[in-house]
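Hey everyone, long-time lurker, first post.

I ran two proteins through the pipeline my lab uses and got sequence/structure pairs for each. Pasting them in order. The first:
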Amino acid sequence: MGDFGKYRYDLQQKAKDAKKKQKAVTWKEIRVSPKIDDHDIDTKIRSAAKFLDEGDKLKVTVRFRGRELAHPDRGRVLLIAIGDKLKDHGVIERAPLLEGRQMHMVMNPVRRDAVSGAPTPPPPGPPAPPAAAGSATPKPPAPGPRPAPAAARPAAAPAPARPPAPRPTPPPRAQRPA
């Protein structure tokens, strides 16, 4: 039978060590407008790359003002372009999503230890020499999905040939007195 006090002490020490190794997730945000200029995007991307390299999560926000909200596709294209330029520093966790007057995209930093520890595929070797024409036997075609025979295919149901019913005409409006 072991000492219960020693067991509790060991549990506390393990919890303490685990807490030391934890890293709090910090969020950083980059705010842009759909009418942003190329130079300004480059400046924002530099700071975003710095945040991702430090290991912070990044939230990229496009704020729409006034009539800009009529073109959410411009904001989505802008966010995807920013994510594409930052692909060396981070990966897109959440695709662009419109919430109210803002469109958000969340990016996670790329884990450097996972990237460097990954095995690299072997380089392609020299091509195999061609076999002699007389000694090679013809190979059967590779198995794969084959189209079903025409008799086994289900026939498409014919569409109804009835024209749509005519809409009734509304009653005439009452004349206003002059």
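...and the second, right after it:
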Amino acid sequence: MKYLAFFFMGLAGLLFSCSKKLTPAIPPPSPSLEIEEIDFEYFHAKAKLIFRDEKKEQDVKTHIRIRKDSVIWMTFTGLAGVQGGRALINRDSVTIVSSVDKEYFVFDYKELSKRYNLDINYFTIQSAILGNLITAHAENDKITQGPTHNILEQQRANVIIKNFINAASKKLEKVEMKESNTNNSIVVTYENFQPVNEKTYAFNGTISINYRTPSGLVNNTIILEYSKAEVGDKELKFPFNIPRKYDRR
């Protein structure tokens, strides 16, 4: 399950670049751009997560629980039904536990920010999972209205972000992000929208990541196929512990 730790780190290097100098709260969009977003107190979902790179493809079953603006809890189970890992993402850090390798990783946002020279926070992950705007809509953003999709174009530091919103459903269907100085890029797509508590939620999502490292270009794809998604006020539990015999990496 080591790839899970590197997945979160790699994703952070691109995804969180868009959160630089942003506040967690997302203000209402301007009247000329309507976006239907998921609002909630608790979120619970089951999905199949597929991780793919140039060398391998691996899929696991995952359970996801979120308490709004507080914590994201995930478990990962292999096809044989054996729990392979857990993740706890809160406003201070990201912790990944590998039950298979009996080890764990802890990344605080200060460490990740220094590693990638970016401001990193919890709220971007939460928005990406829910299919909400990854960065706040500001007055100087460019809006292009089309017959099928409206495009919200944003510039955040050296990152150009294009959000494609379905003109009929008002749902965010694709996000394209690119760093102008490195050409590192990430594309997030949302598909198969189904009703969830009077809103609609994407039951299929794909994250395509392309970035350069000292050893060369890295291409990763993460696919999420949901079988269940619920939002509501019912309190959820977030059990998480690390056995003392596990090694910290």
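Reply from user beta_strand_b:
Welcome! Quick read of the second one: Confidence is low (pLDDT under 50) at residues 12-25. The domain at 2-232 is CATH 2.50.20.10 (outer membrane lipoprotein receptor (LolB), chain A).
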